[in-house]
Design goal:
Two copies of one chain form a homodimer. Chain A is an alpha/beta fold and about 450 residues long. The first copy, chain A, folds into two domains: about 180 residues, Aspartate Aminotransferase, domain 1, CATH 3.90.1150.10; about 240 residues, Type I PLP-dependent aspartate aminotransferase-like (Major domain) (Aspartate Aminotransferase, domain 2, 3-Layer(aba) Sandwich). The first copy, chain A, is about 40% helix and about 15% strand. Chain A has 14 helices and 14 strands. In chain A, strands 3-10-9-8-7-4-5-6 form an eight-stranded mixed beta sheet, with helices on both faces. A four-stranded antiparallel beta sheet of chain A has the order 1-11-12-14, with helices on one face. In chain A, strand 4, helix 6 and strand 5 form a beta-alpha-beta unit. In chain A, helix 2 packs antiparallel against helix 14 and helix 13 packs across helix 14. The longest helix of chain A has 30 residues. Chain A is globular, with a radius of gyration of 23 Å. At the A-B interface, helix 5, helix 6, helix 10 and helix 11 of A face helix 5, helix 6, helix 10 and helix 11 of B. Chains A, B: InterPro entries: AspAT_Ic (IPR024551), PyrdxlP-dep_Trfase (IPR015424), PyrdxlP-dep_Trfase_major (IPR015421), PyrdxlP-dep_Trfase_small (IPR015422). Chains A, B: This is Aminotransferase class I/classII domain-containing protein. Chains A, B: It comes from Oribacterium asaccharolyticum ACB7.
Chain lengths: ~450, ~450
């Protein structure tokens, strides 16, 4: 696996950059700077901006890439799957053969280990937890009959993951993310010692929000976990498996199902993916890959829930992409649209913030997000001030369970949706606001003689 | 509401029909008849039939009716909903405006009372029970925290309904169906006296399997139920609301949500429907209509489960049908295909079975099924013998909770899927088998002096 050597760019040495670190400024200098920044901020406010950098949504030109899918099936089309089913009628619980093949190529798994679901992998994750809650995992006690269920949450992470576990009253335990993935010392210790820990949320590739990819070592250690709970499962949300920014400079992961099998833990993982950010969000197809034992357990429940998912849409996807190579080519078109946005943000961050020591940011090679770390205690204020100038960001705290960022420092930047030029304005405003809030924090510290983040 | 005066055709008086009731035959006559029937049965067995009358599946020519839907959206199409959403992107949890309008016209409800879901109303029903089980209904105790949950099941009924409640360990109580709907004396008594009864399965129009429609009186009494449990809900599965066999001779029901509101019980009902047997089974759109209070309760949960359902497919449906009148015209095309099948079966039943007093059958004006009552203790044997001659029927017992038909007499006939001529052969075989099994039963009774159905 290639390492992501430079993902986290800490503000470089101030002298090298020829800029002064804000904390080295005097109170007078800070006050003068604040005045200047406030003036610029007011100018932005007068621009009546209305920009949304809050969610990982594809842009309109990304959506246009898949418009051809609307022609992939017409009224004259052959509506039979390769395994002989009329996709227009009832049945085929696990998905048609060619959709299994395409998505198994996408997920790097055997088609026999795949179930094709409906339009949302989030829904599949919710249903998996719900099923475990009502009926248990492989004959183990249903979670609703247990006093306490806990879950590991690498932080920062995906807010919709945390929302599901919170909704089911599951106690969430923060595990720090590193550039190589979750801190595995902590994961191993907790998972092996506490039977009430039943799962962990993972976005292993181009993680949400940092864009980190798990190292070989991390994947190997995941596959070798020795959970105290027999019904512990890794929720491996491979949301960005195909979502590279660059054609050659990509992250590769060890495939987790294969590694679990090799490690003698074949049933340890539920792996999720979907075409939501490949074809159309909300009108794609979702999938789960897992061991045959797990599949049997899941299908036993699924047969009560549905007669089958949308096979017409499955066929439409296969007819459009043709095969995994077609999908790879399609993803390069996405990359060509997204890449300039990520690169522009990086450039604007460097130009405006490097050397000031008031923030750091990640440089992902794929995925949908950049993660920004403000000085402690500043994230909420930055998001709030951006909002007041017409730029909507993901709420501060959203990347943590219970919306509680203990440092109040993490902000998720979602570059994909706005057009490039809008995004440039929003990013410049963001930098300005980071400066303003940082100056105010430093001023307060210097004048009050204490750090307001600890108040 | 029009009454279904002649739905259940009991064998007419033997003398009028010029036929002899089997039970009036002597042992010798029965033995001779058995020999003759067995000979005919063997001839069918030699035909190597392979016909499926087991499930309520549309036929191929019915599916062809909706092929035009594949052209309703192409790569040049305007992909914005009437309320301004790009249907290709994330969002719009409850469904796009025009889909709500179409389905609310279909369901006879206000668009504000509607949520559009994914491809399966069965899935919506499952999820509703699952949600009640994990989180409770409107702040009431989640069912998983209660010792005992019970459910009323009008019988015969829909096997997939019963399967869901059985899967959740809910105790199912049989309530006899009548031509006017469930026996409301029993329903009222049980619902008002037992707090552990949390729901009832209803297929109010062209019921599965009998094709009965609830009378005005029945709907009125449902709307006026006084459940002991605050979280009791009527699961009103309006699966066949548009599925008439005749243009003029249709059943009309009092709309249940409106009646509940008038009766001061606005939150009593969850009403379900889908386009599964209108457009494509498994690739249609499903919907729930209920009170605003219930909707709020449901959406609170849904937001954790999904970002939204397939809006492209919602738009595709509206563009294809245009409006409710378009859908009505479309349903007449279905009727033109289905009607001859229902009428043929009726004719073959009359010709072969009338006057023999060995079976009765329903004559629905819509829906997907005919219900057949054999002599007590004969249904399993009839289904089994049909299977051995190459005709697959819904398993006997499937129309009852726990697959237990106490009389072993109900058989669900699903006429839609096979082509007409295949269906005719299958129906003739069915009649022959009913005769054969009935003769054997009567012979056994006469020679052993006791009824084997009670053994």
């Amino acid at each position: 696996m290639k390492k992501n050597a430079e993902k986290k760019v800490n503000a470089v040495n101030a002298e090298e950059a020829g800029m002064t670190r804000y904390q080295d400024l005097s109170v007078e200098e800070l006050e003068s700077l604040r005045k200047e920044l406030k003036q610029s901020y007011r100018e932005y406010q007068n621009m009546d901006l209305n920009l949304d950098m809050s969610r990982g949504k594809p842009s309109l030109d990304q959506l246009d890439l898949s418009n051809g899918m609307m022609d992939a099936l017409n009224s004259e089309a052959d509506m039979y799957s390769s395994d002989g089913f009329d996709v227009r009628n009832y049945g085929v619980l696990g998905g048609i053969a060619e959709a299994k093949e395409l998505l198994s190529d996408m997920m790097e798994n055997n088609p026999d280990n795949i179930i094709i679901f409906g339009n949302s992998s989030l829904n599949v994750m919710y249903d998996s937890i719900s099923r475990s809650y009502t009926h248990g995992v492989m004959g183990n006690t249903p979670w609703c009959k247990l006093d306490k269920i806990k879950w590991l949450c690498p932080v920062p992470g995906y807010d919709r993951h945390f929302a599901i576990t919170e909704y089911f009253g599951i106690e969430m335990i923060n595990v720090p993310m590193t550039e190589k993935g979750p801190d595995m010392d902590i994961v191993e210790k907790l998972v092996s010692s506490d039977e009430s820990i039943k799962g962990i949320w993972c976005v292993p590739k181009y993680s949400n929000p940092q864009g980190y990819s798990y190292s070989d070592e991390t994947v190997r250690r995941f596959a070798r976990l020795k959970p105290a709970a027999k019904d512990f499962r890794i929720y491996w949300d491979n949301a960005y498996g195909m979502h590279h920014l660059y054609d050659h400079d990509q992250d590769y992961l060890i495939e987790i199902l294969a590694e679990c099998k090799r490690a003698g833990n074949p049933d340890l993982v539920y792996k999720f993916a979907s075409t939501s950010k490949i074809s159309f969000p909300g009108s794609g197809i979702a999938s789960m890959a897992t061991s045959l034992n797990n599949l049997e357990d899941i299908k036993k429940q699924m047969q009560y829930q549905t007669i089958g998912h949308d096979k017409v849409n499955q066929l439409r996807h296969v007819r459009f992409f043709e095969d995994i190579h077609g999908m790879v080519k399609h993803m390069m078109k996405h990359a060509n649209i997204i890449r300039p946005k990520f690169e522009m943000i990086e450039t604007v961050f460097e130009k405006n913030l490097e050397g000031l020591d008031i923030g750091s940011w990640t440089k992902p090679k794929g995925g949908y997000f950049i993660s920004f770390e403000t000085l402690p205690g500043c994230a909420k204020s930055v998001v709030d001030k951006c909002k007041k100038a017409g730029v909507k960001l993901t709420p501060a705290g959203a990347t943590f369970p219970y919306h509680k960022d203990p440092e109040d420092s993490n902000i998720r930047i979602a570059p994909t949706y706005p057009p490039l030029e809008d995004l440039r304005i929003a990013t410049e405003l963001f930098c300005l606001v980071v400066k303003l809030v940082s100056v105010e924090k430093l001023l307060k510290e210097k004048t009050e003689g204490l750090s307001f983040c600890t108040v």
